[in-house]
Specification:
Length: 241
């Protein structure tokens, strides 16, 4: 797919084939890249709290020979981010150069030592071997950023209502990560409202597929790029004017 320029998007309506968005997208990817011999890198981006990780893990189970590379592991240390006064969506909060280096290596078919971020200590204190698969799913709000466009073959942007994003922050950060309600709300305001709007929202314009996460986290197609529609019209009904 062409990731070099902003793309025109159209609403496909409901998919013609029965199945969840993950199942249909798996068919689209297998069709698009059936002749590609090198690893296919698929970015799954969008604001925090829209269900990107759940989507990636579901797609991984459906898509043959695939794996998920979690870009949250490439965050700078908590101390560094506090000193810089930045949150997750800010480019300076992430090890952008290392991500680019690792994407180049993976595209060449070689393995990488992926960092593992420790949420308790706020440090990256170990690495894990990540071997390239036919399909590599980049899971993270920064995955669709401009810095990575030339290394990505296909991109998916998952959006949702701000209430859904706030609910996720409150339930995940407070219940699962031990944050206070005040910290969770502050993170939402600075991360989702401020930083992602500045640095991430524009990446939706060049994503190949737009998904919308409902309040119950079920997904529906919002739009597809014109190029995607032309090459996968059999998966979508006629255009809705």
């Amino acid at each position: 797919m062409n990731m070099a320029v902003d793309q025109k998007h159209i609403s496909p309506g409901f998919p013609t084939k029965a199945g969840k968005p993950e199942e249909i997208i798996a068919e689209v990817l297998l069709s698009f890249f059936q002749d590609k011999s090198t690893p296919v890198i698929i970015a799954v981006g969008g604001p925090g709290g829209t269900g990107k990780s759940t989507f990636c893990n579901t797609l991984k189970k459906i898509l043959p020979d695939s794996d998920v590379l979690e870009l949250d592991n490439y965050k700078k240390t908590r101390k560094e981010r506090r000193e810089l006064k930045v949150y997750g969506p800010h480019p300076d909060a992430n090890r952008i150069d290392l991500i680019v280096e690792h994407l180049q290596i993976l595209r060449s078919g070689r393995a990488i030592d992926s960092p593992v971020y420790n949420r308790v200590s706020g440090e990256t204190d170990t690495t894990v071997l990540f071997s390239p698969r036919r399909f590599i799913l980049l899971d993270g709000e920064i995955s669709t950023y401009a810095q990575f466009r030339q290394y990505v073959d296909f991109s998916i942007f998952i959006d949702s209502d701000l209430r859904t994003q706030l609910y996720t922050r409150m339930s995940r950060d407070v219940q699962s990560r031990g944050s206070s309600r005040e910290t969770a709300i502050s993170t939402f305001l600075n991360s989702n409202i401020k930083e992602f709007t500045l640095y991430g929202a524009q990446s939706k314009s060049w994503a190949d597929i737009h998904l919308y996460s409902n309040e119950d986290y079920s997904l529906q197609f919002e739009a597809v790029s014109a190029e995607c529609f032309r090459n996968a019209f059999q998966f979508f009904p006629a255009l809705i004017e």
